[in-house]
Amino acid sequence: MTTVGIVGLGLLGSAIASRFIKAGHAVVGFDILPARVAALTAMGGKAAPSAAAVAQSAEAVCTLLPSLAAAEKAVLGRDGILAGARPGLTVIQMSTISPTLTERLAREVADKGLGFLDCPVSGTTSMIDRGDGSFLVGGERGLYERWCPVLESALPRVVHVGRVGQAMTLKLVANLLVALHSAAAAEALTLARKAGLDLDLALDVLNSSAATSAMLRVRGPMIIGGQFPAQMKLDLFMKDIHLMQDAAAAVGAPLPFTDLAERLYAAAQAAGHGGEDLAVVVTAIEKHAAGRRKAPRPATSTRRRAKPSPKSRGRRRPRHR
Description:
Layout: E1 3-7, H1 11-22, E2 26-30, H2 34-42, E3 46-47, H3 51-57, E4 60-63, H4 68-76, H5 81-84, E5 90-93, H6 99-111, E6 115-118, E7 121-122, H7 125-130, E8 134-138, H8 141-154, E9 157-162, H9 166-194, H10 199-207, H11 214-225, H12 234-251, H13 256-273, H14 281-294, H15 310-313
Parallel strand pairs: 1-2, 1-4, 2-3, 4-5, 5-6, 8-9
Antiparallel strand pairs: 7-8
């Protein structure tokens, strides 16, 4: 049994904590919201008053936080992990942050003589609950091999991607597809609804066809039901989209579809849906469809263009100098 620390007990952090507890590990956790800490103790974990206190009790500390600033503070802050770290501790950074910040945190941790793994999680909360997600790992091979069995006890697919920062880049690539596949599912089911199809039947057929995707399976029922309980809150996912765009700009990769999807997600967020699942993008698509239906088509002229007169056919236009 290993003592694993968790800093950040939101939807994903709580799901990861539950997986470690079910695997027989001791889990000690901290979150700024007391209700989340209470939920951890209810499932068999132990509460800690700060990230530093988690580091004092654990052999490895996993961070699962909603923003770059929160992740940085949890590791480097006055009451952060490094403030309470004991010799031999490994920081396993699971928050979705930028590759640049990932690399900086790794350097700061290494300067203290501690281990660091870049270890974002791929999968929705419901997938993690079922054990269907995966850990993408960047870092030294030896440190990866040391912690791989513990990680595999929570989620069976653990992949060593390469150096620190590369796992986070791959996570952003994966989330790019999540963004596009979710928006595509919303657009497709909007067409099915507008065309008067039986949506349950349509979704069943699509999920059994070449058109299926993990996002269609996860978010299709939300889209047709019009209910969006958060597997991934739109507010948080907007941060991920902007990280994708920043990472693409840094390497010169064009993201035309992602840029379009970002505008749709931003419209849903601006309409007050930030706390709901990102499947709520369907509301922005439906609003767009309603706007197109109301707008009159421009009149098409039926007049034929006048034919040039015989005199003008041979006349040369004056040059403008």
